[in-house]
């Protein structure tokens, strides 16, 4: 597979410049790709946690079911993401993971990550940076659910998705595909599906967001940022200054 088609290389390159050897190490994590259909359960709580997987294409999400039957979606994974990092120190899965749409995943065992750590200090540093950002994403999601209005929740989430997608896709310009149902959006934002629909309509009436089925258009990203009280520091920080200082 060519480097220009590798989502994981694009993802890692956001944090640090990579050598050719480091790019080849990352490509090795995308060996043996498996086609996965929408809705497929990758693993569930209690399964053995002995491997990661890279998301080569498609979207996925992690979630927990509550005692009353409600579902809370914890994280949305995009192409280039590594799924399962938070369970590296655990024997069992702590959350369920399911595909949102058709995609391709590549499994690799935990021991392969240890080999990567031994072979490359820069990639080890980037892996820690990615783990830190995943924690920051969860923290921001908690604040979004607990303390913002429905309009702010939606505006913040859409802004976040747009910036995350743009990191690995330079062609995005004010428009992107959001393959999430209203039920899934509701379970991400802590709203009802009806409230999700009403919130989209309100944002559209104010010219902030336009949705045509799964296609979302943001005419003014700055205006959406103000609406969602969005601060992109948790998405834009990287480890490049660390390597510059070391050099």
From TrEMBL:
The protein depicted here goes by the name Crp/Fnr family transcriptional regulator
Which PROSITE patterns is this protein grouped with? HTH_CRP_2
Q: Which InterPro entries match?
A: cNMP-bd_dom, cNMP-bd_dom_sf, Env_Response_Regulators, HTH_CRP, RmlC-like_jellyroll, WH-like_DNA-bd_sf, WH_DNA-bd_sf
**This protein's UniProt keywords:** DNA-binding, Transcription, Transcription regulation
User: So which domain of life are we looking at?
Assistant: Bacteria
Q: Residue ranges of the HTH crp-type domain?
A: 148-222
Query: What's a Pfam family in this record?
Result: HTH_Crp_2
